[in-house]
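REQUEST ID: PR-0412
SUBMITTED BY: lab tech R.K.
PRIORITY: routine
TASK: structure prediction, single protein chain
INPUT:
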Amino acid sequence: MSREVVQASKNEVNSSAENRGSRLRNLREIEECLEGKRLYGDEFSGEEVAAWFADEKEATTEIRGPDWQYKYHELNQFHAYEWLPSRRFSNVLSLGGGDGSELLPIMDSLDRVTILESSENLRPAIKAQYVLPEPDGSIPFPDNTFDLITCLSVLHHIPNVSRVVREIYRCASAGGFVLLREPTISMGDWRKPREGLSKHERGIPLHLMRQLIQEVGFKVVSERRFCFAPIMYLNRKLKKNIYGSRLMLRLDSMLCKLPIWNRRYHAERALEKFRPSGVFYVLEK
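STATUS: complete
OUTPUT:
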């Protein structure tokens, strides 16, 4: 056997070993993500982020369909809007705000509204300026621009969450408010297709969200857990908007406050699903 052939064989073996090592490392990383130790997607390369962004661009709009109507007004009012000061907001940014329906209950207090939205197949419900987001997570506005920013169930669709939260902080004005609403559970195994969910969405572990909020410098005005899993199950079974009821929201909030539920991020057994599944933040810069 020639020296060149031997060297080629060695290179092939080394390459194969490197690939196996890379796969094992990726498997370990995914397991750590499913355990809630790290956030899947937050450390992706630029190419991976761009591919994720392309997959999610119209995914939510397509899943919801043309007849979908916004049904979270009471939820937003109970956990967020009631915490805002009684004042006008001159410059408002809605991240991933879709047709703008989420802002309808407080429109009388808003002057100028900008919606940063990836979908281009929406019919606006409010008067607003639409801007397409950048895949890299940057927000195309100067520092201290907005005195109110809403980001309601958007971050779990985004890979580079920490980058986006830092950008939100940068763009918020001093004394400005930020409203965040996110699932804090895995939402199932994202390596497999999940009915009613897009390809990549996954919740953000609560301790990682708390850590990020503290690191960027936000003051926490309110942190409320919501969406107790059995109530969500009942909501789906009855096909009713339970979270449109103030009474059910109070019950849900009371149950979520009990310190007896497990904090497992990725539930694999029925009893592990008895837990709050989301968090609502009112933050101030």
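NOTES: Residues 35-284 form a domain with the Rossmann fold fold (CATH 3.40.50.150).
REVIEWED BY: pending
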